[in-house]
Write a structure and sequence with these properties.
Layout lengths: L2 H8 L8 H6 L3 H7 L4 H33 L5 H12 L1 H12 L16 H22 L4 H25 L2
Helix pairs in contact: 3-4, 4-5, 4-7, 4-8, 6-7, 6-8, 7-8
């Protein structure tokens, strides 16, 4: 994995260590293959990746909540929830953010050989995006503003587009 390429393409902040970023950008099929001979390491890496995605989902959701709260200052809570929901879902929001920042570009994410269908691979980018959000948060010594600001800088346009699509539905 070429971390310099990844840092440049994803406009990542400067961190002391990029090992969590590298882990976030590896799908479980890649981890299964890479650590096939070391079951303990494989299980630990898979667990760590899932935990990054879990944490990143929360980080992303807070950033989206903040965005919707600012964007619609006069809306009731129920309306804010309705506006935020499609932005939070993995198959819509996280997948759209993943593609917007270029996670689907060659050389960014690592997949195992068993993943070869483009459509199936596309669904997995949302999970990787969430893991990346968790990795950015942890790599910044848990400074939420670093993850929040990175998300805003690179995903606001996508959130606007997703909201416009939702509003155009009958």
């Amino acid at each position: 994995m070429d971390i310099e390429l990844i840092k440049a393409r994803l406009y990542l902040p400067k961190f002391q260590d990029y090992s969590l970023i590298e882990l976030a950008l590896c799908h479980k099929t890649y981890l299964n293959e890479k650590f096939a001979q070391d079951e303990n390491t494989k299980q630990q890496r898979l667990k760590d990746h899932k935990r990054l995605a879990h944490l990143g989902d929360y980080i992303m959701n807070v950033a989206i909540g903040d965005y919707v709260f600012r964007r619609f200052p006069d809306c009731e809570v129920g309306i804010l929830n309705n506006k935020a929901q499609p932005l939070k879902e993995r198959r819509t929001g996280a997948l759209a953010y993943a593609k917007a920042i270029g996670l689907d570009q060659p050389g960014i994410c690592q997949f195992g050989g068993s993943i070869n269908e483009p459509a199936r691979k596309g669904d997995l980018f949302g999970e990787i995006f969430e893991a990346l959000m968790g990795a950015i948060y942890l790599s910044s010594d848990r400074q939420f503003t670093v993850a929040h600001d990175w998300f805003y800088a690179h995903c606001t346009e996508t959130m606007e587009r997703l909201m416009a699509l939702e509003q155009s539905k009958p």
